[in-house]
Amino acid sequence: MDGTATHRIESKWVHYAALLGLIFLVVFLKLGSFHIRWWDESMFAVNTFEMMENGHYFSLYYDGAPDLFNTKPPLTNWLQLISVQLFGYSEYAIRFPSALAATLSILAIFRFAMRHLSIYWAWISALILLTANGFVAYHTARTGDADALLTLFMLLSVLAFIDYLITENKRQILFVFIFLTLGFATKLYAVFLFVPAFLVGLIYVKKLRQFIFNWHFLIGLVFFLGSATFLIVMREIETPGYIDLILSKDAGRIFEVVEYHTESATYYVDNLFTYRFGMWMIFAVTGTALLFVSKNEKHQIIHIVLFACVVSYLLVITFSATKLEWYDMPLFPLLALLAAYPIQSLILEKISVKWQQHALIALLFVYPYYIAFNESQGNTITLGDSKIEAKENYLYTAFRNQIDMNGVKVFYHCWDGGLLFYQYKFKTINQDLKLVYNLENLSDNDRVLVSNDSLKNLLSSSFMVEPIDHLESAELVRLHPK
According to DSSP H, which parts of 117-214 are helical? Predict the structure, then answer.
């Protein structure tokens, strides 16, 4: 290897190291510094602990019973289980797979752009994705649920597919199916939403027959079908009725509103422009328009696939009856690649001095990165969420400050996922935290954690209440006879 090649390799790893440093500060720093959030994150955390305890690795359990609410396959929980073995049962361990998936997504578009486009395109794409408000936020990169993992596997399937169109390397077909399989093992049918775009790309480059009629496609298809069938059948065996449930609930989200999650037809587009992707959405639209008239054949292939994926995915989630804010997350890496193009072609290519190009990129991203860093480290939630999650926040703080909670009864009338997480977490240090739903289960001299105003009044009507400690609206009290 000559000196020039060695220098290129060293230079490449300098870029990766610098990017990883920037990612760490936004994605990983203080990842475990806030309580487990309601709903999906706490549900996955409980599923993972119970999987670790009961040894049922293909079915999910919640509070000792088969979980018929979380119908997703177990890959997320398997990864969380590995993380728990490494870091202990903690907020950090539950979130680590999502943070790692988000990091790999950023690195994947960086590597792809560096190979097929330019180093500046790579840096701009990566920084756009890192500073996109909806990518590094709750329910995405810094929350322990399935969406960051789904985004990674869908992205990798797209990049492998584009690699095949550009290089005609048939091994990439296998990678497409491997990543589709991993996506299915994460969140079932959602992984298929880019597939119509693959058909568009194959027709555009006239490689449909070449893609389908070869051994790589057949092997990949058999691998996907076999793996998907195995996961579904194994859970059906342990939880009879699971197949009917995923057909009616998960596939039914397209046609029927699930859990009251209904929004307007422009919900996702409005979110992308206003705050989810923010100002970068203007660049993405501009990049799409510019790439339509590009004379570069490779750019055209990349553009057609990315644009078709965005349109395909956006149409399905827009016309689905059930809408949730974070369903747009798989679009972000693709939009980042599109948004980088006008910055690259209209600005950087007009500047011939390298240090000026570097300075311009730094100036463009210093403020968005500052905002992303502050928001990721602030861990701010709405006042409403803060109030309803006050008990979880108190328990997080109590564990961190080594407060003795053995025998404390948590009095609640609400979703108990986060409370179960902390019950299990205190169990790991041999402290017995009890969850109590009925007043009849409380007695004199009990220490009780309560936050709901109506439950506080109910306690006061039946006992003399002695305050012990408080955090925001959560209060730890001792009960005495009236």
Answer: 119-131, 147-167, 171-187, 195-205, 208-212
Is the separation of the CB atoms in 216 and 170 below 8 Å?
yes
* Cα–Cα distance measured from residue 104 to residue 108, given in angstroms and rounded to the nearest whole number: 6
Backbone torsions φ then ψ of 295, nearest 5 degrees: -95, -5
Strand arrangement of the beta sheet that strand 474-480 belongs to: 434-436, 409-411, 447-450, 474-480, 464-471
Distance of CA 293 to the CA centre of its chain: 34
Q: Residue 290: is it exposed, middle or buried by C-beta count within 10 angstroms (0-12/13-18/19+)?
A: middle
Beta strands in 344-417 (DSSP E): 409-411
Of 143, 165, 157, nearest to 191 (Cα)? 157
Report yes or no: 259 and 87 within 8 Å, Cβ to Cβ: no
Beta bridge partners of 469: 476
CA atoms of 423 and 410, how far apart (whole Å)? 10
CB burial of 9-21 (b: ≥16 within 10 Å; e: otherwise) equals: eeeeeebeeebee
Give the rounded distance of the alpha carbon of 340 from its chain centre: 23
Secondary structure (DSSP) of 423-452: HHHHHTTT---EEE-SGGG--TT-EEEE--
Q: Is 111 exposed, middle or buried (0-12, 13-18, 19+ CB in 10 A)?
A: middle
> What 3-state class would DSSP assign to 467?
strand
End-to-end CA distance of the chain: 85
Cβ 470 vs Cβ 464: under 8 Å: no
Two tokens at 142? 């810094």
Residue 436 CB neighbour total at 10 angstroms: 17
Q: Give the residue extent of every domain in the chain.
A: 3-378, 385-480
Closest listed residue to residue 54, CA positions, set 92, 83, 81, 90: 81
Distance CA 466, CA 451 (A): 15
Sorted by sequence, the CB contacts under 8 Å of residue 283 that are 6+ apart come out as 128, 338, 339, 340, 342, 343
Q: With H, G, I as helix, E, B as strand and everything else as coil, classify residue 464.
A: strand
Instruction: State the 10-residue block means of pLDDT for the chain, 482 residues long.
Output: 48 90 96 92 96 95 92 96 96 97 98 94 96 89 95 98 95 97 95 94 93 95 97 94 83 55 82 93 92 84 94 91 87 97 86 84 93 89 87 96 95 92 96 94 94 93 94 94 86
